[in-house]
Amino acid sequence: MKIGIKVALALIGFVVLLTVGLLTWLTITDYKPNDVEKLTVENNRNTQLPDEITIFNWNIGYGALGQGTDFFFDGGETIITPESEYRGYMNGILDTIKDSEADILFFQEVDIDSKRSYYDNQLDIISNILPDYGSVFGTNYKVGYIPPPALFKESYGRVEAGLVMFSKYRMDESSRLSLPGGYSWPRSTLFLDRCMIVSRINRGDKNSIVLINTHNSAYDQGGFIKKMQLEFIKSFAETEYDKGNYVVIGGDWNSYMPGTDGETFKSEEGPSIYNQGLPKEWKMKGWNWAVDRKTPSSRSLKTPYVKGENFECVIDGFLLSPNIGIKSIKTEDLGFKFSDHNPIKLSLILN
């Protein structure tokens, strides 16, 4: 009996020491970006921006969240998608990007060195199929090691990922801006450092266009963090518009887009506690939403995708300053074959 107690105490002590050691290491190595960081534009172009352009937006789910996948943090089982499935999803993503024929592309959840995507540098992979585009990358997720969600489970491991913007036209200035809000310690050491990346394209003697690619908080019960982020985005965007610039805000808002809600698309599964609309008081006077309300842009990851069973909603879209006109907006219904998001394509005109 005494031996059993000693063994049990030794095991408990070992687990405690291991946990304390991991938390200490995660705290020391925690990614802490500055509020504003200049970004280097790779392969920058010299082409001048015309009055009519197309913008493509897609949260690619790091190439591993296609139709056959669920995700442990959303109530599913999968921690790391099998490599053969990942390769298939990634190939489908690349083919879709090549077919987009867009002038500017926004991406979210792009890995550059992560266990979950087999340490592929997806930025380089996408850049290789877009040789005539400049690109900027802003990190929003950098953790050296994420432990298993439970005993005897696989670890999530290392993650380094972020947001990307590609452009056929010269990006004169690009920055990473940290979004406010976040989780308390120690949860903060394991989760994303939310940000938006901003690129400015000058138009000679005309006003500039300011492009904002954002990925707002997801696991935010009550939407308190998102409210802070939305106010930050609003203040920044309105300041740029007041200078006479054109402003495009696009990305994964993680909030129902205006004119949609949790019942827009019928399914057996209902919304989670994290699904919310934009705050009613959050408005930008004269600004216009470019949203396809007929096609879901996101699906739940509680189970592999089956149409009519998984919860679906619209949380991806664009918000445009009053001096920009919308020619068309369409979500490409891929049936979530390659990602848990469907891509969106916007055609706009600078008035």
Describe it for me?
The protein is an alpha+beta fold and 351 residues long. It has two domains: 1-30; 34-350, Endonuclease/exonuclease/phosphatase (Deoxyribonuclease I, Chain A, 4-Layer Sandwich), CATH 3.60.10.10. 21% of the residues lie in helices and 29% in strands. The protein has helices at 2-28, 83-100, 122-129, 224-242; strands spanning 36-38, 52-59, 104-111, 134-146, 157-167, 173-178, 195-203, 206-215, 246-252, 288-290, 298-299, 312-313, 316-320, 324-331, 344-350. A hairpin with a 2-residue loop joins strand 7 and strand 8. The relative contact order is 0.16. Pfam families: Exo_endo_phos. This is Endonuclease/exonuclease/phosphatase family protein. Keywords: Endonuclease, Exonuclease, Hydrolase, Membrane, Nuclease, Transmembrane, Transmembrane helix.
Rg, rounded, reads 21 Å
CATH architecture of the largest domain: 4-Layer Sandwich
Helix-strand pattern: HEEHEHEEEEEHEEEEEEE
CATH class of the largest domain: Alpha Beta
Tell me the total number of β-strands: 15
Q: Major sheet: order of its strands?
A: 1-6-7-8-9-13-10
β-strand percent reads 25-35%
Instruction: Please give the alpha-carbon distance between the first and last residues.
Output: 82 Å
CATH topology of the largest domain: Deoxyribonuclease I, Chain A
Largest sheet: 7 strands, mixed
Q: What are the segments in which pLDDT stays under 50 over at least 5 consecutive residues? A: none
The helicity comes to 10-25%
Number of domains: 2
Transmembrane segments: 7-28
Protein name: Endonuclease/exonuclease/phosphatase family protein
GO biological process, one term: GPI anchor biosynthetic process
GO molecular function: endonuclease activity; exonuclease activity
